[in-house]
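hey m, so remember when u said the C-alpha cells were messed up on ur end? i reran from scratch. heres the input so u can diff it against urs
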Amino acid sequence: MQKIKGGTSNPGDFGKKFEVRRYLEDIPTKDELRHILECLGISAENLVRKNESVWKEKYRNRLMTDEEILDAMIENPKLIERPIVIKNNKAVIGRPPRNH
C-alpha cells in the first residue's frame, strides 16, 4: 500500500465504500460548502488553504465574511482544504499529524 503524507493512497483499503469528488472539476456549490462547514463545526476561514498563492495575492489581508470566503473558494476551488471525509453529517479534514 502506497503512503501519501501520512495517509493511504486508497481509503478503500480499510474496507469502507467511499465516493471521491474531484472538486477542481466538479466545484462544490455554496450550499454544499455550508453543509461541509456545518459538519466540520468550523468557520469558512478555517477551510481555506492559506498557503496557496491565490489566497496570499488576492485575499490574505482582507477582512471577509464567511459568504465572501465561500465565494472565493468557489472561484478558486484549490483554496478548499482537502481531503475532507464526511459520514453521517460528521466530517474531518485529513491533515497530516503536526510535528511538535
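this time it looks ok to me. The domain at 23-93 is CATH 3.40.30.10 (Glutaredoxin). if urs says something different then somethings off w ur setup not the seq
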